[in-house]
Amino acid sequence: MRVAIAGAGAVGRSIAGELLENGHEILLIDKAPTAISVERVPQAEWLLADACEITSLDEAALQRCNVVIAATGDDKVNLVVSLLAKTEYGVPRVVARVNNPKNEWLFNESWGVDVAVSTPRLMSALVEEAVSVGDLVRLLRFSHGDANLVELTLPPESALAGTRVGDVEWPEDTSLVTIIRGTRVLTPTREDSLEAGDELLFVAAQAREEQLEDLLSVRREDAVG
């Protein structure tokens, strides 16, 4: 997956490093010569350019990107980059950093933003989620205890699609805390049924993550056999 990151400061480099570890192709863009530190993220491509300029984005071949992340420290820049990425280049997934909470209301689809977030870890996790239906994504590691907040989008072929929450034998040390279905946020009960495309959020022990992923991603034919 090709990902362009506008803003090569600490936030942009942090996101780039994590995504590179997961095998993605990364392009870092920044207009400040002092921000171009190739030695800090040597595996990435670097471009000294203004990400708010069409000519710069043409040079970056933004139309070939699966995801664009607007990660500068300036909310105005992030909004302009998001709008250009979506409207001029048709980038499927635009993730934008919000620096000032007072500006959060602006970061919506009107400005081309698919997801607005404020932490590098969550930004990279959401990028992974965009192309990882059926794969478990770790969103947050709790500082106390061996537990993480993890997310998995239930794939259509999952054997659990159509199953009641109360009928599922969840792994030990695992709790389903939220179901996101379209624009709705549901607090799951035993009677709720799982549907393909549901975004499921769990608090789970790290040792149970692989077991949880296998349970949710199993194909129907595998479950029967």
From TrEMBL:
<dbReference type="Pfam" id="PF02080">
    <property type="entry name" value="TrkA_C"/>
</dbReference>
<protein>
    <recommendedName>
        <fullName>Trk system potassium uptake protein TrkA</fullName>
    </recommendedName>
</protein>
<keyword id="KW-0633">Potassium transport</keyword>
<keyword id="KW-0406">Ion transport</keyword>
<feature type="domain" description="RCK C-terminal">
    <location>
        <begin position="137"/>
        <end position="218"/>
    </location>
</feature>
<dbReference type="Pfam" id="PF02254">
    <property type="entry name" value="TrkA_N"/>
</dbReference>
<keyword id="KW-0520">NAD</keyword>
<dbReference type="InterPro" id="IPR036721">
    <property type="entry name" value="RCK_C_sf"/>
</dbReference>
<dbReference type="InterPro" id="IPR036291">
    <property type="entry name" value="NAD(P)-bd_dom_sf"/>
</dbReference>
<dbReference type="InterPro" id="IPR003148">
    <property type="entry name" value="RCK_N"/>
</dbReference>
<keyword id="KW-0813">Transport</keyword>
<feature type="domain" description="RCK N-terminal">
    <location>
        <begin position="1"/>
        <end position="117"/>
    </location>
</feature>
<dbReference type="InterPro" id="IPR006036">
    <property type="entry name" value="K_uptake_TrkA"/>
</dbReference>
<dbReference type="GO" id="GO:0015079">
    <property type="term" value="F:potassium ion transmembrane transporter activity"/>
</dbReference>
<dbReference type="GO" id="GO:0005886">
    <property type="term" value="C:plasma membrane"/>
</dbReference>
<dbReference type="InterPro" id="IPR050721">
    <property type="entry name" value="Trk_Ktr_HKT_K-transport"/>
</dbReference>
<keyword id="KW-0630">Potassium</keyword>
<dbReference type="InterPro" id="IPR006037">
    <property type="entry name" value="RCK_C"/>
</dbReference>
